[in-house]
């Protein structure tokens, strides 16, 4: 008698996940200043299905540095877009006040050894973000997390960011990057929905043969 409620709760959870969001974390493991230790921050992407929006949370770790100042945070952040024939200029940014967003395929520089990127959001030194939270959507086509977790325009790097306002000896800012070693994926909504359907089907099959 406990089987039905358990399966129904599980199916409800699967459906809820399949209609809301999913995401993955990516660490800032590399830097161009020779700093030891790390990771120095974490990038998390989540996708909201109803709004067709990917949200980025770029969180620099204060604890990873010897000391940080009052203006510690992210000053700029760059990433890629796997356009698949779509026009990246039709992406729409929602960014912090005073920040700007830009799409310039294969041409965004300024991140040291981490090559060129497709997209960038940036602010002024007085407007650094800790954490940086912004989102991207498009009124013209469907996007997904996979569109932005790509090294299509770079050589083995998914993301790069400029963190400033800390102190490591004489070093007060550096460029940090996430190498293209994608973590174990969080199941996408379609996968979760398929799993839920399969479980419900197995329950029905078992119930049929118990009659």
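Sequence proposed for the structure above (211 residues):
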């Amino acid at each position: 008698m406990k089987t039905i409620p358990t399966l129904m709760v599980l199916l409800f959870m699967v459906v809820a996940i399949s209609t809301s969001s999913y995401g993955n974390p990516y660490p800032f493991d590399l830097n161009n200043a020779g700093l030891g230790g790390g990771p120095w921050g974490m990038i998390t992407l989540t996708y909201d299905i109803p709004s067709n929006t990917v949200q980025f949370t770029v969180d620099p770790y204060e604890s990873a540095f010897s000391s940080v100042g009052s203006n510690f945070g992210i000053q700029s952040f760059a990433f890629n877009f796997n356009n698949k024939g779509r026009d990246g200029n039709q992406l729409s940014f929602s960014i912090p006040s005073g920040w700007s967003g830009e799409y310039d395929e294969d041409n965004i520089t300024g991140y040291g050894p981490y090559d060129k990127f497709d997209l960038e959001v940036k602010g002024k030194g007085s407007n650094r973000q800790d954490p940086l939270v912004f989102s991207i959507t498009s009124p013209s086509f469907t996007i997904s997390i996979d569109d932005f977790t790509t090294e299509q325009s770079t050589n083995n790097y998914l993301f790069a960011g400029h963190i400033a306002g800390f102190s490591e000896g004489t070093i007060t800012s550096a460029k940090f990057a996430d190498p293209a070693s994608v973590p174990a994926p969080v199941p996408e909504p379609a996968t979760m929905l398929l799993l839920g359907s399969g479980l419900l089907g197995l329950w029905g099959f078992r119930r049929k043969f118990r009659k």
